[in-house]
Amino acid sequence: MGDIARALGQPEGTVKSRLFRSRNLLKEGMKMAREFGPKSYKPEEVRFVSSGGQISGLPWSAVERMLPKNILLEVSNNPSTAEELSVAVGVAMPYMEEEIAALVDAGLLKQVGNRYITNFFIESRDLQVAIRNELILMTRDWAERYNTIMDKSIPIYRTGCFVPENMTNGELKWLMALELLDQLVHGCKGHTHDFPVKHKHPEDSWGFIGYEGEGIEEEWFVGQTGSMMETGTQFWSYQIGKWDMWNRAATWNSPAIKLIGELISEDRSVNTLTPTEKEIFDRRNPYTFSIGEDGRVIPNIITFRREEKGAIRAKIAELPEYTALQEAAQTVFDRMVALLRREGHAILEEQLPYCASSTMWKVRGILLDAMVDKGILEIPAEPAISTVAMELIVK
């Protein structure tokens, strides 16, 4: 002690008191490390998928940081008090209470007594694996059954809407397969797009689901993005991760979509464009449209007039193979509800139809994968700029 005091040029009493305080601080820190849960030093990953309108910026603005994500993970199917959350996540109570209040206000946490629970479903890693295995098992023969229906539906598409002349049947089937699955899922009893949670912002209509872990199933995930114009024009693109067809719609912009829809609907020539319209038109995606000798726009993607799409679906539903496939889809849907119910807290019971409907979209990637393996679908020569699995709907 004397040597330390002389080296520091301090009295021995000062050195003793500082060592005493340092030991106490170290002891308290070690105690806190023992008391706090693993998320305090090893935060977990969770990813989310949303649907519907998000005018207010919610729910995404509430889950941008790691702390709210781990709070939501901790109380998923695990109602917890603020004190329990404080220990589990390793955040002092005043800060935890503030985070909880923000998540409750966003509609992502629900208070039940003095406990909190997620107000939406977060699938655990184990449940995600179980769902994937069940979907693969239950849809293992769908590729051939789909192909039978699609072969019979090719003339319905080619005579019922605009299909580019240079699009092969193998390319056409990308959209046909995904549209057929959407039709089957919409036909399932219990299916819904409506998220049964009242939103604070009156114009919001979003739904939300979480998935524990990072990168699980990403390769075969198939999403959908697009735009709906007030003029009635719609553009939709399926986002396909496995074959580099995820960001193909990024080069689209709403003004160009709106203008192209008007040109097609009104049978206008590009020679009639005003200077402002020409500026918008020049910003279009160059791979999706060409211009004919008469100045008319020629789509390089499948294009429907609104009434045509409903008529095509009605004709496909009349095919004898369709009824059996719809029954198979209903069986899968009911099984997804059962799996979700087995893991979900009773408070989320009313969300099971929405969650099962969202889970059914996982069949998209499984189905496409099987169809490519069997040679039913042709992978485009340049996937990143291809127009397969895209559609335009005009008046």
Describe the structure.
The protein has two domains: 44-119, Winged helix-like DNA-binding domain superfamily/Winged helix DNA-binding domain (Arc Repressor Mutant, subunit A), CATH 1.10.10; 125-394, no CATH class. Helix 6 packs antiparallel against helix 12, helix 7 (142-160) crosses helix 8 and helix 8 (169-186) packs antiparallel against helix 14. It contains 14 helices and eleven strands. The termini are far apart. Helix content is 47%, strand content 13%. The chain has helices spanning 2-8, 12-35, 66-74, 82-89, 93-105, 125-138, 142-160, 169-186, 254-265, 275-281, 306-317, 320-343, 352-360, 363-373; strands at 46-51, 109-112, 115-118, 121-123, 207-212, 222-228, 234-240, 289-291, 297-299, 302-305, 390-394.
